[in-house]
Backbone:
């Protein structure tokens, strides 16, 4: 018995030493499926959860992923196909601002041109503010600006942050003026939040308290805030370009996504679908907000930011793929929903 225990202990020690001596690049071979079946834009899925690996291996895995991201984004020309594959499974926090800017087509893939292009884009946004923002007092545009202010006053994130409220006002008003066919629609203000938090994290550590109020670990200069503002404007503009049908007259994109969600649930969870029908629950009653705000009001912000890593890696990530994410949530809580009879007081 003693010899058997000694053999087991020796085997465990050898295994731990082998793990600790793994080369970072070689350690990446284990969790990734590199078969050619993955099409561009599709993530490289883990064959097992990272939690299943020993602590030392998980640490090497994280280091290896960060190294792969750095290699990709610091190449002379960034390969966006590879970057999307890496990003599908999550982006390291310290690299997320740069990666999001690349995936939003804000930064060029050419490493050499990035500093110049970024400076030009930020300068261009400043010119937009000079061109449009003074029109907020115009009789024609005053109601729109008033609606923007009302929506921002309800955002806990901006509580007691007047300088950041002003940032959001400028971004939303300028974007709305540049898109007269859409204008400002309630809910667009929420879409700024993930970009704002991620780009702010380039300059200071960012926390949200239990009430959702913003907490910064260090002061940030006006110059840096101006850079964050311009970056948020351009990346939000890119996002809205991909889902603009959600916000045009009658919101056809949003309506279609709700119908698509209902159709999915009807096919894959008939019991839940019929339960909704029997209880006079229409998908539009709860899914409208899911599509309009991309679940930002339903999930913690850290989860939204992680979810957006994947959305940005997928073609139609903020539209079609988002519908499947909503369907996954309904399936996850299907049993609870099927037991519910009073949906008047029940929040989905």
Residues:
């Amino acid at each position: 018995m003693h010899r058997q225990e000694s053999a087991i202990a020796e085997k465990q020690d050898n295994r731990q030493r082998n793990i600790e001596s793994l080369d970072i690049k070689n350690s990446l071979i284990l969790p990734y499926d590199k078969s050619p079946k993955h099409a561009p834009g599709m993530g490289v899925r883990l064959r097992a959860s990272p939690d299943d690996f020993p602590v030392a291996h998980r640490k090497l895995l994280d280091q290896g992923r960060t190294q792969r991201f750095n290699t990709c984004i610091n190449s002379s020309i960034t390969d966006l196909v590879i970057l999307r594959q890496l990003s599908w499974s999550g982006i390291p926090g310290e690299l997320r601002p740069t990666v999001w800017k690349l995936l939003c087509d804000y930064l060029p893939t050419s490493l050499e041109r990035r500093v110049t292009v970024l400076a030009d884009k930020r300068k261009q946004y400043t010119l937009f503010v000079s061109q449009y923002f003074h029109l907020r007092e115009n009789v024609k545009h005053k109601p729109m600006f008033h609606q923007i202010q009302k929506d921002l006053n309800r955002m806990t994130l901006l509580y007691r942050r007047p300088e950041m409220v002003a940032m959001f006002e400028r971004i939303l008003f300028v974007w709305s003026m540049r898109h007269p066919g859409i204008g400002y629609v309630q809910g667009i203000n929420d879409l700024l939040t993930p970009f704002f938090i991620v780009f702010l994290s380039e300059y200071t550590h960012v926390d949200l308290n239990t009430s959702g109020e913003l907490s910064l670990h260090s002061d940030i200069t006006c110059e840096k805030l101006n850079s964050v503002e311009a970056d948020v404007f351009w990346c939000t503009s890119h996002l809205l370009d991909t889902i603009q049908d959600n916000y045009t007259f009658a919101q056809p994109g949003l309506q279609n996504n709700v119908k698509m969600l209902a159709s999915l649930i009807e096919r894959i969870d008939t019991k839940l679908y019929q339960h909704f029908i029997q209880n006079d629950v229409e998908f539009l009653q709860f899914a409208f907000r899911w599509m309009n705000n991309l679940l930002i009001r339903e999930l913690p912000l850290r989860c939204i930011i992680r979810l957006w890593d994947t959305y940005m890696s997928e073609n139609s990530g903020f539209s079609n793929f988002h519908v499947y994410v909503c369907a996954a949530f309904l399936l996850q809580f299907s049993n609870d929903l099927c037991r519910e009879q009073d949906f008047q007081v029940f929040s989905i």
Remarks:
- Confidence is low (pLDDT under 50) at residues 14-47.
- Strands lie at 206-208, 214-216.
- The radius of gyration is 23 Å.
